[in-house]
C-alpha cells in the first residue's frame, strides 16, 4: 500500500506553531495549490490544502516560512475525525508533512529546505546558497521540442 502526497504551492497565511502538552512542536498551515487544467471559463482553480508538520521540522517551518512563500511538501494524506463544540462529528483531510522544501527566497535571500524520514527525527534545515534563479524552470529542457503538441488532450 502507498500513501504519498507531493504538493507545490504558496502559503495562505503565516504558519501556526503550537506545542502539545508533552512539549512536542506542531505547526499547521494551508497551501494554495493551482490545478493543472482550467475550468470551462478558462480560469485556473485553486485547492487549499491543510498541512501539519511535527517536531523540529515544525519549528523550522514556523521560523522560515511566511504567508505568500512558495513551498514543496512531501508527506502522507491523513483523514481524522473529531467532535466539535456543538457535538457534531467533523472529518478533516490534511497532509502530514515528512519533508518541506522552501522554494523561493525569503527576506534573507537564501533558499532553505528541511526534511525528515519516516520514523526518524527530522533533520535541521540545510541552508543552500542559491546560485540559481528560483523562478527558472529546471525541467524546461527535459521534454523534446513539440512534445506537448502531440498529446491527445
From TrEMBL:
Homotetramer. It comes from Alicyclobacillus mali (ex Roth et al. 2021). Keywords: DNA-binding. Residues 110-127 have a biased composition (Polar residues). One of its GO terms (molecular function) is DNA binding. The lineage of its organism: Bacteria, Bacillati, Bacillota, Bacilli, Bacillales. CDD domains: SSB_OBF. PROSITE patterns: SSB. This is Single-stranded DNA-binding protein. Residues 106-153 are annotated as: Disordered. The keyword DNA-binding applies. Gene3D superfamilies: Nucleic acid-binding proteins (2.40.50.140). Residues 130-140 have a biased composition (Acidic residues). SUPFAM superfamilies: Nucleic acid-binding proteins.
Amino acid at each position: 500500500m502507498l500513501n504519498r502526497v507531493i504538493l507545490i504551492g504558496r502559503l495562505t497565511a503565516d504558519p501556526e506553531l503550537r506545542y502539545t502538552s508533552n512539549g512536542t512542536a506542531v505547526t499547521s498551515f494551508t497551501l494554495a495549490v493551482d490545478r493543472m487544467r482550467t475550468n470551462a471559463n478558462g480560469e485556473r482553480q485553486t485547492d487549499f490544502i491543510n498541512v501539519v508538520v511535527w517536531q523540529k521540522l515544525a519549528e523550522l517551518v514556523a521560523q522560515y516560512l511566511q504567508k505568500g512563500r512558495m513551498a514543496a511538501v512531501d508527506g502522507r494524506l491523513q483523514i481524522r475525525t473529531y467532535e466539535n463544540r456543538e457535538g457534531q462529528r467533523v472529518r478533516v483531510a490534511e497532509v502530514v508533512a515528512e519533508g518541506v522544501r522552501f522554494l523561493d527566497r525569503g527576506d534573507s535571500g537564501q533558499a532553505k529546505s528541511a526534511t525528515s524520514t519516516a520514523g526518524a527525527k527530522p533533520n535541521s534545515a540545510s541552508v543552500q546558497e542559491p546560485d540559481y534563479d528560483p523562478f527558472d524552470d529546471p525541467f524546461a529542457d527535459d521534454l523534446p521540442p513539440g512534445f506537448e503538441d502531440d498529446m491527445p488532450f
